[in-house]
């Protein structure tokens, strides 16, 4: 992993600072001023297929981001012509098809450990208290859908398409899509259709059903829009932003009564922050959140 501060400029003219380079993903702090981190699937020659290194590196990457006080929001994208073609079957076939173990029970436990490890690769995005804005372009296949449903805000380019591809390769999606997609789009019939047929869903349908909140003309504009949204989020109080994400996810999985009680317990301590007074003062002075300097969290 490369942790040197190498500077580069991307096609949008924004300065990047590399703080971590992995084999399958690239992680960059856009700038210390914006507090936005850019994570990019970085196997363009393999259509960003997810190999063995990816599953390990994603967990390490987002655990670092979760603890990084300079980061307040994340943009996730893919290098090259497509977002991702899903699992790299050639690279991972041996681990999936030839499990270790002396008998069926032991092989089953080995497979279970592999599956739960893969599940954590995307759950770590959801567990990260920093909001994640994903910018999809081109194909988003199989595990790519698992990945984006764990993100907080989803944008895509006009040429994007999505496929819950797992049934076409002889398995049920097992790392998040079947658990998260129903609540993301709120249409169980459509979820069932997509998961059982593996058909392509194009960008306009993805927008109409709620999988994405915006459709932009191309890769460049969708990434620019994602950076703008992340910048707006990062300009707000990190106490307020991270508390909002955590409570939104809690409310999804609990009753209204339980969620209100959790919220009251949360804010009994989180309201005791200077950020509240700073934000109120800025509003009275007709300043924007970007005019306020919030302490690191």
Report what the structure shows.
The protein is of the alpha/beta class and 297 residues long. It has two domains: 6-234, 2-enoyl-CoA Hydratase, Chain A, domain 1 (Alpha-Beta Complex); 238-291, Lyase 2-enoyl-coa Hydratase, Chain  A, domain 2. It has helices spanning 52-67, 89-97, 104-127, 143-149, 177-185, 188-197, 203-209, 219-234, 238-252, 256-270, 274-284, and strands at residues 6-9, 15-21, 25-31, 36-41, 73-78, 132-136, 139-141, 153-157, 161-163, 201-202, 214-216. The chain has an eight-stranded mixed beta sheet with strand order 1-2-3-4-5-6-8-11, sandwiched between helices. A three-stranded mixed beta sheet has the order 7-9-10. Strand 2 (15-21) and strand 3 (25-31) form a beta hairpin. It is globular. 37% of the residues are buried. Residues 1-19 have low confidence and may be disordered. Its main location: other. Belongs to the enoyl-CoA hydratase/isomerase family.
């Amino acid at each position: 992993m490369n942790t040197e501060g190498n500077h580069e400029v991307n096609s949008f003219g924004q300065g990047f600072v590399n703080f971590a380079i992995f084999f399958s993903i690239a992680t960059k702090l856009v700038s210390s001023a914006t507090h936005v981190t850019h994570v990019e699937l970085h196997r363009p020659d393999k259509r960003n297929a997810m190999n063995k290194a990816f599953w390990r590196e994603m967990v390490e990457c987002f655990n670092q981001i979760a603890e990084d006080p300079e980061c307040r929001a994340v943009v996730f994208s893919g290098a090259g012509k497509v977002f991702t073609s899903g699992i790299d079957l050639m690279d991972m076939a041996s681990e999936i098809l030839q499990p270790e173990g002396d008998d069926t029970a032991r092989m089953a436990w080995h497979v279970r450990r592999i599956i739960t490890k893969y599940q954590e690769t995307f759950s770590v995005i959801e567990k990260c208290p920093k909001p994640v804005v994903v910018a999809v372009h081109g194909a988003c296949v199989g595990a790519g859908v698992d990945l984006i449903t764990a993100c907080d805000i989803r944008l895509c380019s006009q040429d994007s398409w999505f496929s819950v591809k797992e049934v076409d390769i002889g398995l049920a999606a097992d790392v998040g899509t079947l658990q998260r997609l129903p609540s993301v789009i709120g249409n169980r019939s459509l979820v069932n259709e997509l998961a059982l047929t593996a058909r392509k869903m194009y960008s306009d349908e993805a927008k109409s059903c709620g999988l994405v909140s915006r459709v932009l003309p191309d890769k460049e504009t969708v990434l620019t829009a994602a950076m703008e949204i992340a910048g707006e989020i990062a300009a707000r109080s990190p106490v307020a932003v991270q508390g909002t994400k955590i409570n939104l996810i809690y409310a999804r999985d609990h009753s209204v009564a339980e969620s209100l009680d959790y919220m009251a317990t949360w804010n009994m301590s989180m309201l005791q922050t200077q950020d509240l007074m700073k934000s109120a003062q800025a509003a009275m002075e007709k300043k924007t959140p970007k005019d306020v300097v919030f302490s690191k969290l």
